[in-house]
Amino acid sequence: MPKLPAPPLPKGLQPKPKKPGESNGQVQAHPQPLEAGVSVVGWLDERMSMSGGLRWLMWRKVPRGINWAYTLGSATLFAFLNQAVTGVFLAMYYRPDVSGGAYESVRNINDNVFLGQLVRGMHKWGASVMIILIFLHMGRVFFYGAYKYPRELTWVIGVVLLILTLAMGFTGYLLPFDQRSYWATVVGVNINAGGPFLGPFLSDFLLGGADFGATTLSRFYAIHMLLIPGAMAALIGAHLYLVTKLGISAPPWLKADPGHDGDHEVDKAEV
Q1: Chain centroid to CA 29: how far?
Q2: Angle 101-111/116-143 helices, nearest 10 degrees?
Q3: Beta-carbon neighbour count of residue 107 at 10 Å?
Q4: What is the dihedral angle through the alpha carbons of 206, 209, 215, 216, rounded to the nearest 10 degrees?
Q5: pLDDT > 70 fraction of the chain, expressed in percent and rounded
Q6: Which of 31, 39, 208, 250 could form an SS bridge with 63, CB 3.0 to 4.6 Å?
Q7: DSSP three-state, residue 197
Q8: What gap in Å lies between CA 209 and CA 201, rounded to an integer?
Q9: What is the DSSP letter of 213?
Q10: CATH architecture entry for 72-248
């Protein structure tokens, strides 16, 4: 397969032209000292060498025949970022207090905080949107056969991310601490307790004891705000690395070209 030419660097990362006073590699006398960094991008790249990593991440080969179904992963990532940003805003006003503080803090967000109802609505409905998108993304990967060699680890990480997404939705449902969320969580925990082997231990871990109490809300809040998002951020980073390193699989209806290496004939594109 002929080697594709290296993609051009963006304007901000291209080497700067010679400065006044420089010729044939020798620096002539200049009345004022010359600055090394002309722009912020050039200053950072000179010290961190980011241009190579950015070229590897942003310019890569993609197969022919891709369609809008391939954007479901990016849409799911956007939904996760929406949940993270709106969740940080809500955490500034939320109080995990079972004696009425949790419910009143949610009412305060809806009634008194500027744009609080909008942000809470984005977080509430964004959770449903993220679950729908991740199921659609996993379905696209499965039916397109994109889980096969050499992308098995990418698929396994995606399955773990799906489980964590469902767990994040389950733990967040209790946080308003109204009658519906309370009894729905009791039913969910009891279902977990009926599972074989690990069921009773998982139930005790979620409840923070034998019964539903004050520790349960704090534990759900900590899991929802710290444990699951941290694990998801790390796994998303690994998932994106594998997608970038291994490339995107071609649609299954395209026949492989024997004269080319890799999945199928590729186009050079900016992703």
Answers
A1: 52
A2: 100
A3: 13
A4: 30
A5: 80
A6: 250
A7: coil
A8: 10
A9: -
A10: Up-down Bundle (1.20)
